[in-house]
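Intended use. Records like the one below are meant for learning the mapping from a protein sequence to its folded structure. Do not use them to infer anything beyond what is encoded.
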Amino acid sequence: MTIFDEEPEKKPTFHEVGSDLSLLSVDEIEQRINLLKVEIERLEKEKESKQSSRDAANSIFR
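Structure written out for the chain above:
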């Protein structure tokens, strides 16, 4: 096997809060921003679902 057979090192497709951003390209930063926006949306939906469940439970036990 030669060095040409090896795949180039891939950068992670996730974002770690506080990680060094200086080595990322503008496109990579944009990808991470989009990834985080999708994750925020997912978290907000879960929060709403849990809040609805909590509100329903509170209305029963009041």
